[in-house]
Amino acid sequence: MKKAPADTREKILATADQLIYQNGIYATSMDLLVKTSGVSRKSIYRYFITKDDMAEAVLKVRDIRWMYWFRTECDKGGTPQDRILNMFTVLKGWFESEGFRGCAFINTAGEVGDPDDPVRQIAKLHKKKLLDYIFELTEQLSTEQPFLLAKQLLVLVEGAITMARVMGDYSAAGSAREVAQLLLKQASR
Amino acid sequence: MKKAPADTREKILATADQLIYQNGIYATSMDLLVKTSGVSRKSIYRYFITKDDMAEAVLKVRDIRWMYWFRTECDKGGTPQDRILNMFTVLKGWFESEGFRGCAFINTAGEVGDPDDPVRQIAKLHKKKLLDYIFELTEQLSTEQPFLLAKQLLVLVEGAITMARVMGDYSAAGSAREVAQLLLKQASR
DNA sequence: TCCATGGTAGAACGATCGTTCTCCTCGATC
DNA sequence: GATCGAGGAGAACGATCGTTCTACCATGGA
User: Fold this and answer.
1) Distance of CA A139 to the CA centre of its chain
2) Which nucleotides on chain C have any atom < 7 A from a protein Cβ?
3) DSSP assignment letter at B114
4) Does B14 touch chain A if contact means CB atoms closer than 8 Å?
5) Is the CB of B101 less than 8 angstroms away from the CB of A123?
6) Residue ranges of the domains in chain A?
């Protein structure tokens, strides 16, 4: 059975995603990617023009996959309030999962200095999507300024992720959750 | 007048600090450092065993300098409450300052995958110092659990910095400040 | 049967990396 | 005045980077 053309591309993306998430873009050499994925150099360059092009594709896929996963997990909560608080429980589970290395997009922003770099745009867009999702939730609350609340909640989410990554303090998810609880109480008055 | 031996070392550190902060450790080549600083390769390697060794020194100096600056700026507030809220005003000023590129230590955590790497330890310690400072402030409040409050405030600080860096949203400092205000109101009851 | 296609293996290119080296200059100290 | 150490300019080393190339293999449709 001949492999479908898309299979090779996906194997490249899946392997590169793991390598980039674990070690970063710079530390992921094409040589390492070839050896780890079992895909030849020629095939890699058939599907991607350059390494940067491939890194972009990897991050775009991760953006979609992560957002879908996060949304699905959080939406298991019943009320909008539950879903909002659920975000921080989901984060805690993520922190404690094997191979957790923080947010790939925050890491990318740390790696790539130029704010106009394509991968930085992807990172920016990713956080924008996250803000949009939180805004969807706060809109369902009977609060006066749901967008301001969404931004405040995003600060909590980003803070927890950053503390987990830099300090290794996974309890930051709990701290953020406590604050979120207070915010919700305040918003419902 | 012959230059004091320490002058060359400090020139290396000052130049490397700027380059690393702007572009990251990987993107800062020794070649670029030589050209930018005007210090010869030989002199650099006289004061630092390796590039990694130099990067460590750079981050250690920045840790001390940033903490001193942040502390001094925040302490201009009068009451402990003022100082705590002042943190976010100071952050906003930092975000809007020329050449702002986020927190060098969060960036380092994004660049260096290995959590046991020496530079990652420096980053971790830096955030620990920041937590200690915030704890000093919350201890002066008549609240029951000053350490928990300090951790919550640190989540807000890290969240604001991360949003400023990744999204370019400097208003995150204001969002974090609003939440901090609510936390203080809650703590003083 | 032939041939286009997608794949692997691996050599090879030029560029750049961190690091070391040689050769030269200058200024302070004995 | 001789000596020594700090520093500068730049060549050079081996390693590794991203990228391209050649050679060969396997498959499926005309």
Assistant:
1) 23
2) 6-11, 16-23, 27-28
3) -
4) no
5) no
6) 1-48, 60-187
**What residues of chain A, 77 to 136, have a C-beta less than 8 Å from chain B?**
101-102, 105-113, 115, 123-124, 127-128
Q: Which of A74, A92, A86, A103 is nearest to A162 (CA)?
A: A103
Nucleotide nearest residue A40, measured CA to C1': C8
Q: What pLDDT does B6 receive?
A: 67
Nucleic strand D within 7 A of Cβ B107: no
φ and ψ of A78, to 5 deg: -80, -75
Tell me, letter by letter, the H, E, C secondary structure of chain A. CCCCHHHHHHHHHHHHHHHHHHHCCCCCCHHHHHHHHCCCHHHHHHHCCCHHHHHHHHHHHHHHHHHHHHHHHHCCCCCHHHHHHHHHHHHHHHHHCCCCCCCHHHHHHHHCCCCCCHHHHHHHHHHHHHHHHHHHHHHCCCCCCHHHHHHHHHHHHHHHHHHHHHCCCCCHHHHHHHHHHHHHHHHCC
**Is domain B59-187 given the CATH code 1.10.357.10 in the classification?**
yes
The predicted-structure confidence for A66-94, as pLDDT tens digits, reads as follows 999 999 999 997 899 999 999 999 999 99
- In Å, how far is B149's CA from the nearest CA of chain A? 8
- Minimum distance, in Å, between the CA of residue A31 and any CA atom of chain B: 18
CATH of domain A60-187: 1.10.357.10
> How is domain A1-48 classified at the architecture level of CATH?
Orthogonal Bundle (1.10)
* Per-residue pLDDT, A1: 39
